[in-house]
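hey so u asked for the seq, here:
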Amino acid sequence: MNFANRAHVICSWARFRFVVLACFLVATGCFRHERPADVTIINGNEPESLDPHIVTGVSELRLVKALFDGLIKLEPTNAAPVPALAARWDVSSDGRTYTFHLRTNAVWSTGEPITTDDVMYSWFRALSPATAGDYAGQLFYIKGAEDWYNGKLTNRNDVGIHALDLHTLQVQLNSPLAFFLELCSFPTLAIVPKQAIEQHGDRWLHVRPLSTSGAFTLEAWRVNDKVRLRRNPLYYDAAKTASEIIDVLPVGSPNTALNLYETGVADIVWDKDLVPTELMDVLAKRPDFHSFTYLGTYFYRFNVTKAPFNDPRVRRAFALATDKHRIITKLTRGAEIPATNFVPAGVANYSGAGGLNFDPEAARKLLADAGFPGGKGFPRTTYTFFSASGGAKLHGKVGVELQQMWRNILGVEIELRQIERKVFYSSQSKLDYDISTSSWIGDYNDANTFLDLFTSTSGNNRTGWKSARYDQLIRDANLQTDLKQRAAIFQEAESILIAEETPIVPLYFYAGFNYYDANKIGGIWPNILDEHPMQFIYKRNAGSRVEGRGLGRETLSANAK
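ran it, structure tokens below
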């Protein structure tokens, strides 16, 4: 059967299954009578949380960016930093002090003014160990913030975050930082409602109406059904919010996602993982399937606190026994590129350091040198991956390929361990694994967003690996103002990470991929961070709020200046 016929048969069967499912839902009363959304987006897995200070997954981050603004946000056409709750800012001549001037017309969705008191509360909350946010280290570039986090400072005034008045915030950095404005756009530094959190504690997200600082309010969050976002009429930039209601569906199955899109239930599907692998070669040729350069790396990590992976020779042996081309050719079938380094191509002012290539003989020798010739005596080991809701199976398939490679080349037996996504990330954080699947999507366009993950104090390290030399190199790189010297220092650090110590092994670089009909959906532009603010997304029709106002690329670009 040729590809076109195969696609037709599979999609027809998918439509049939959807109709059956829809009839079942209607019969059981699961469909509610409510206004249809202007735009419906399939966003991957069910959100673990909508608290911007603790979320780490891409699907959650997209939602919290719609609900909570920071001082800065990213412009949708090129992901460059532009004003958000801060209308403007000044930078000192030495690049160490930023003075932000908040908008005087910025208010919460419940009507109260947003002031520097809210910013101070939010940033210190994100920085508090009690919040347990994996991204707290993003604030360590601020003077005294790391010492405050570690309890070495007890006077909050010694931390370089100061409210000069209700609308002026001054931030002092340890050193000039090329990507500080991008950090200010990230949800860890988003502004959250102090009053609701202090009154309701961990249940603050259940309060209705929920005070939000972003372009949307949270109308409903129904687990395993949808998150419904409604335009925030009090948002300072509400006139440019293109849709009144956006529904975001948690769907983890590629077949179900394609199904809902083909039948018109969904308008947009984010992410390559929601494209059926067996149809990739067919679907990639369609005009409504969009591929683009994207800063993302798929890799696996070791728990270096457990023998035998506390030995770098063992970790390098596994890396050398990994055939990355085989994984791409056999499994992903997209535009992915084998990863010889961790930092993807396309990152500004940087080219990656060389890593370890596929070399079975060298792998066997290293394992023998570590005391396991031919795999003899190697302890039982697990490779852990998470199961997506609905059954996306790529992580498991990658695990099977690695299992076979390591058996054939190293003579070791690996047990595959599939666990639920929330448990998976908890297990990683607790170092309750041997080897585990991993991925990282750049938070901003700089090598640091990849390399600082594995510093000793990073909440996203999750390997148990600590290297004082590596930590110092990352610090030195970020103190360096000469871009070429900075890149050289980062390359030295990356070489330690992937070629010498090897607590992680990069497999491939992602190709960005999503699908929507550009003749029907507007407000989406490809960019290297895959940043698509929901504020600007709309359905093209005669009644569109956007079409009537003529909002387009020119307007957005002008707004970014």
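The chain has a mean pLDDT of 89. The CA atoms of residues 144 and 159 lie 5 Å apart.
lmk if thats what u needed
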